[in-house]
Amino acid sequence: MAAVKASDNDMKLLWTPSQQLLKTSEWTKFTAFVNKKYRLNISTVSGLWQWSVDNISDFWAATWEYTGIISSTPYTKVIDDEKKMPGAKFFPGARLNFAENLLRFRDDRTAIVFKSETSNVAIKITYNQLYTRVAALSQRLREMKVVAGDRIVGYMPNTPDAIIAMLAATSVGAVWSSCSPDFGKNGVLDRFAQITPKVMFTTDGYFYKGKRIDTMPGLREITHELPSLERIIVFRYTIAESYDLDLHSIPRAVYADQFIKELKAPIKSKIEFEQLPFDHPVYVMYSSGTTGLPKCIVQGPGVLLNHVKEHVLHLNITRDDVVFYYTTTGWMMWNWLVSGLAVGATIVLFDGNPLYPSTSALWKYAEEIGMTVFGTSARYLAAVMDSGCKPGKEYNLSKLKMIASTGSPASTNIFRFVYSEIKSDVQFASISGGTDLNGCFALGCTNLPVYNGELQCRGLGLDVHIFNDNGKRLLREQGELVCLKPFPSMPLYFYGDKDGSKYFGAYFDVFPNVWRHGDFAEVTEHDGMILYGRSDATLNPGGVRIGTADIYKVVEQIKDVADCVIVGQDYVLADGTPDVKIVLFVVMQEGIELTKELQKKICSKIRSENSPRHVPGLIVQCPDIPYTVSGKKVEIAVKRILGGKPITNASALRNPESLKWFEEYTAQPPKK
C-alpha cells in the first residue's frame, strides 16, 4: 500500500493501492474468475461494477460460487424475476443453513477475541471451541422443542455468548433478534413484544465507564410483559462464577450453564443444521421507529451472501485478518462483523465505552492483538482527534491495513486525521448503507484510491444511482440515493405487515419499482460517492440512528405539554464533522410557559426512559405543529425549514399556516 503526499491545503488523493495489492487482491482474483467463467474481458473496477448490475443473475451466482456458500440442495435458478421490485425471489430451490456457513471451519485458529473495558487480558476462542459450545446449546434448544420459525432474542452486551446464542438459534432454524442492554425498558418491549419470542438470552449485567450496570431489575419488568417467553437464559458475565444471583423473581429464568446441564442426551460432536429455503427468515432487525413502533425488518440468508461479498471482494478480508468493529448487539454492524466467521477471519469484540479510560483505549487494544481491520464511526474518530490522541505515534499499528467508518459521513478533516495521525499507508474505507439491507450501498475497494471525503465505490450487484425529485438520474449533483434492481439482502417482509403496505411505503412509494433509501448523496467524478446525510426525518445524532417515537412517548406523558414535534437539525462541529442536533418543539397547554425547570424535567425523563442519546439539544416553545390532512405530523417539513430548504408540499398540510412560525424562527431564532 502506498501513501500519497500532498499539501495540507490540497490533500485530495490520500492513498493508492500498491502494485502488489493490485495483483493479489480478492477483487482482482474475482475479476479473473468472472472473466474465465463468462468469457469476458473486464479490466477495471468500474467495468466489474457495471457488469454486476447489468447481469445480476450471473453476478450473484458467481459470488455464491466464489465465496463457497454451503447448501445441501442446489438452487434451480438465481432469481425468478429480475424486473420485480419488490418481490423478486432469489435462489429458489436451494436448502441451506445460515449458522452452518458461519461454522464451516473447525480448527484451532482463533475465531473470536473479546475484551471488556474492565478486562486486563483478552479472551480467545478457537473455531473448534466455538463449534463445540454452539453444538451443546443447539442440542439443548432442540430438546426444549424450539423449531424453525420460532423467535429467539438476545438482550445482550457484545460478548462471545451473544454470538454463540445466535448461532445456536439459527442452527435449528429459529429467527434471531437482539437489543443491547442499554436500551430502556420501553425500547426493548417496543421491539421484542411485536415478534413474541419463545426464548431470551441475557446476562447478569454489563460494564460501562468502569462500573457494573445491574440489568436484573429491568429484566424482571421486561420479561413480565413478554408472556410468550418459555425460558430466560442468563449468561454469567459481571458476577463471579462462584456466586449466583437470585433468579427466582424472574419466572422461567435459568443460568446458561445450568440450562446446558439439563440436556437429556450426551452432547453430539456434530451439529444438526436445519436445512431451509433461501427465503426462510434468519434475523429480525428494527427501524428507528420514527412514526410509531419500530418496523420489524425480517431478513434471510441473503444477508450472509451480501456480507461475504463486502468482506471478501470489497475489503479483501481473508483467514489471516483480525477484524474489529466497535458496535453493540443492537446495531447492524454486529451482524456484519459476525459474518466474518464465514470467511474464517478472527473477529474482535469489545464491550463498554470506547473512550474509557481514555480515548486511546481501542488503539491499545489494536496493538495488543494485531488488528488488521479497525471499524468504527466518524464520531468516534472525531472524538479521538479532538482529544489530542495520536494513535500512530503512541501505538504500534504496523499490522493495520484498513480503517472502516460508518454511522455518519466522515468529514474531510477526519480523512486527513486518519492519514496524518493514525497511519499514512492505511486504506480508509468510509462505508454507508443501513439496517434495511444489513449492508452497504457504497463502501471501500482495495483496488481503488482513496479521495478525501469520498466513499470509494458503489457495492457490486447493487444498481445504485442518484435521482432528482422527478426520478431522473444525476451525476455530480446531490439527490436521493436509489437502487434500481433487486438484491438478495432485501428484507423478506416486515413482521406483522400482512398486506405488505408498510414494506412498500418504506422504500417504494416515491419512485415506482425503485428502492429509495432516504439518503442524500452524490456520485463523484471518480465514480465514488459523497453522503450528505438522511433525507427523511430519522434522527442521527453522533451517527447513531434513533427514532422520534421513543421521545414522543415520554413527552406525551408530561401534562403541561399539549403537542410537540421532534426533528434533527444538521450542523457541523468545530472539527468539521457533520452531526445532528435533536430539536424538540413544544406547544404548551393554555396558560403554561416553557421554563428552564420544565426543560430539565423533560430531559431527565427522556434520559431515564430511553437513553442519553435521545435527550434533545434544544427545546423550543412554538404555537402550532404542522399536520397532514390525514392527521400525521410533518416532521420533514420542519426539518427542511431548519435546513434552509423550500417546502414543496404545503398544500398537503391540514394547517399550512403553521409553517410561517418555523420560517421566522429559522431566520431569527427567538431568545430563550
TrEMBL record:
A GO molecular function annotation here is:
ATP binding
Q: Which residues cross the membrane?
A: none
What processes does the entry annotate via GO biological process terms? lipid metabolic process
> Which key words tag this protein in UniProt?
ATP-binding, Ligase, Nucleotide-binding
Going by the entry's taxonomy, the superkingdom of the source organism is recorded as: Eukaryota
The cross-references to PROSITE patterns, in alphabetical order and at most eight, read: AMP_BINDING (PS00455)
Annotated ranges, domain AMP-dependent synthetase/ligase:
103-486
Which residues does the UniProt record annotate as the domain Acetyl-coenzyme A synthetase N-terminal? 48-101
Spell out the InterPro entries in the cross-references. Answer: Acac_CoA_synth, ACAS_N, AMP-bd_C_sf, AMP-binding_CS, AMP-dep_synth/lig_dom, ANL_N_sf
Family, per entry: Belongs to the ATP-dependent AMP-binding enzyme family.
Write down the NCBIfam families for this protein, in alphabetical order.
ac_ac_CoA_syn, PRK03584.1
UniProt name for this protein: Acetoacetyl-coenzyme A synthetase
